[in-house]
Structure to design on (660 residues):
């Protein structure tokens, strides 16, 4: 090793000769480096002259090195072209490689130049220009360039080479996977081609054999052929030979096969079932032959749903809960049941075995209009009654879950689904009138959901600053401290949503963030959304936003976009009076489901069955009021069940009219 330090005209050397790389020499070199002082400019050319030129007292060992490392923090006093030409001339006849290393301290001014100190420098250049010059200086001698700062490396030839190799390996891997896939898909085709490419044995045509004229005598009447002898051997001796000629076998096998074929044309398979409310047994025709099935479509019986909605509430989101126990999941979609019979109403002609015939009597059967198509109603009245009973029970269960979500802390915060959460509440000055309601709801949340279910939680309150409970990551604090912290919350200051989200994302082991706010943040909404998107990209944690006593439409839109961008849920807190009125309207609509709308009139083909006092506009306004990802889908499902109940009632009246 040989160390040089240069500053201005002063160039210092650690040792006159090369020294081995030992711990003692490294310690001495480190102490020598600690004695450096930054002054004057960067005389890079002077350092290379002392390194490469022969001087008095220089030994042969001094000239026996072929690599040099230039470590600098800026541009040299001399132009890089001059330094490169000098190195090429001084290293003629000997191998010499120069590696350059640039270190910057991230202190930049607006024009891209490094911040200057009191130390004078020879030339001022930007970081990019300095890096480009040092890189070209290293490449001129076949060396490597490395640039790093206080945060890490910025550019490195070693890293670039590794990245190039990784990209080449990935490219080869994709090509190999593509080749394997093509080989697997075309394996059969290759086998067939290989079979076709096998050499075939040539077939040589042989000359035809000479024809021989054989004299055939007259036939004998009492002799049987070998085939007839085999058939005659299978016939029992005591078989009635009446109807058959003497000396000829019976046609019993052929007659038996024809009889079996005729019986198969009329063979049916029956499936039994038990009627509701008793032990009476019925039979449903499940199979008919092609000959007897002409003009007789199968009757599809209404099957009971095998899924049962549990009475105890499950801690699931509404989307997942309806995916398990919704109308479609329980096979209670009335339109799908009617269309599953696969019997469409023919307006003009019906296809028969030979030619199309006029559909004169098709209109006498009951038919309904569903989504612009006319279908024959093949469901029976008992099936529709059983369907209405199942659907009414399911709709009542949907209403009970909606009532459960509108009680206690779930009315404000919704359902807590994860086991490690951060609850961030807004305590800015705009929440002065509702701070007591918020503290009461937060206390209910801890008592009803967090502590009974043993959920690990962290509480944050943000206004102009952010405060948390517990102050450290230790979650073993007594429960009373939580209530004292909640009671000490006051409404004042601004709304620093961005800082609260940063702290919430940094909590160790957090699985979800519940953010309660009553307005827009202090920063720009788009800026906060971009920051949150970057945080979510690093830590994929959902943010469930809650709108509390917010009357600003832009603020609600911001909270909705925040939840959508992080795959969370949006919840708008309603007053208890509004929740009770909406539940009362939905309950009354289920008691009298005969709602008359234009769509239902088209679906029922003009049948009257309305006996309800609930208007469709009232239900639409209720659904519009429920601006929550957990509440609105349940209300929509209840209204859909109400619609199907009304249609089922009209279908029963339609069947009753046609039966008379």
């Amino acid at each position: 090793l040989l160390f040089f330090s240069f500053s201005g005209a002063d160039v210092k050397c650690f040792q006159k000769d090369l020294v081995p790389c030992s711990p003692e020499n490294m310690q001495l070199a480190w102490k020598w480096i600690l004695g450096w002082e930054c002054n004057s400019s960067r005389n890079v050319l002077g350092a290379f002259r002392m390194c490469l030129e022969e001087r008095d007292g220089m030994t042969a060992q001094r000239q026996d090195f072929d690599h040099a490392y230039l470590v600098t923090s800026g541009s040299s006093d001399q132009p890089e072209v001059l330094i490169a030409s000098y190195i090429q001339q001084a290293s003629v006849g000997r191998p010499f490689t120069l590696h350059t290393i640039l270190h910057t301290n991230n202190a930049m001014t607006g024009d891209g130049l490094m911040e200057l100190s009191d130390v004078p420098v020879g030339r001022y250049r930007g970081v990019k220009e300095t890096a480009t010059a040092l890189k070209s200086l290293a490449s001129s001698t076949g060396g490597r360039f490395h640039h790093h700062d206080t945060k890490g490396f910025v550019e490195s030839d070693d890293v670039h080479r590794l990245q190039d190799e990784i990209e080449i390996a990935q490219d080869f891997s994709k090509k190999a996977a593509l080749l394997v896939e093509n080989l697997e898909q075309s394996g059969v085709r290759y086998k067939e081609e290989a079979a076709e490419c096998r050499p075939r044995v040539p077939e040589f045509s042989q000359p035809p054999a000479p024809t021989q004229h054989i004299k055939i005598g007259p036939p004998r009447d009492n002799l049987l052929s070998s085939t007839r002898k085999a058939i005659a051997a299978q016939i029992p001796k005591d078989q009635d030979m009446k109807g058959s000629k003497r000396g000829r076998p019976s046609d019993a096998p052929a007659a038996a096969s024809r009889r079996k074929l005729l019986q198969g044309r009329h063979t049916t398979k029956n499936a039994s079932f038990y009627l509701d409310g008793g032990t009476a047994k019925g039979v449903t025709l499940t199979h008919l032959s092609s000959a007897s099935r002409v003009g007789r479509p199968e009757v599809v019986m209404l099957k009971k749903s095998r899924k049962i909605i549990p009475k105890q509430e499950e801690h699931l989101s509404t989307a997942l809960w309806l995916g398990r126990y919704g109308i479609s999941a329980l096979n209670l979609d009335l339109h799908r049941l009617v269309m599953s019979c696969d019997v469409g109403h023919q307006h003009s002609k019906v296809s028969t075995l030979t030619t199309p015939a006029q559909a004169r009597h098709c209109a006498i059967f009951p038919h309904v209009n569903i989504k612009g198509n006319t279908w024959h109603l093949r469901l029976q009245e008992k099936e529709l009654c059983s369907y209405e009973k199942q659907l009414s029970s399911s709709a009542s269960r949907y209403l009970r879950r909606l009532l459960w979500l509108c009680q206690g802390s779930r009315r404000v915060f919704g359902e807590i689904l994860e086991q490690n959460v951060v609850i961030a509440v807004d305590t800015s000055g705009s929440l002065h009138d509702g701070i007591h309601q918020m503290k009461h709801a937060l206390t209910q949340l801890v008592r009803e959901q967090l502590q009974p279910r043993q959920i690990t939680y962290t509480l944050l309150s943000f206004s102009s600053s952010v405060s948390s409970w517990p102050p450290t990551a230790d979650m073993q604090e007594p429960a009373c401290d939580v209530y004292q912290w909640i009671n000490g919350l006051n409404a004042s200051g601004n709304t620093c949503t961005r800082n609260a989200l940063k702290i919430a994302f940094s909590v160790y082991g957090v699985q979800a963030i519940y953010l309660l706010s009553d307005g827009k943040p202090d920063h720009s909404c788009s800026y906060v959304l971009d920051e949150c998107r970057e945080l979510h990209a690093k830590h994929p944690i959902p943010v469930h936003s809650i709108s509390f006593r917010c009357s600003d439409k832009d603020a609600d839109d911001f909270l909705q976009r925040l939840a959508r961008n992080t795959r969370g849920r949006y919840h708008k807190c309603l007053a208890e009076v509004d929740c009770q009125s909406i539940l009362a309207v939905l309950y009354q609509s289920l008691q009298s489901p005969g709602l008359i709308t234009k769509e239902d009139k088209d679906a029922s083909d003009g049948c009257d069955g309305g006996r309800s006092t609930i208007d469709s506009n009232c239900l639409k306004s209720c659904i519009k009021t429920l601006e929550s990802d957990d509440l609105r889908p349940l209300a929509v499902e209840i209204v859909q069940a109400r619609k199907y109940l009304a249609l089922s009632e009209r279908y029963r009246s339609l069947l009753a009219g046609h039966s008379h």
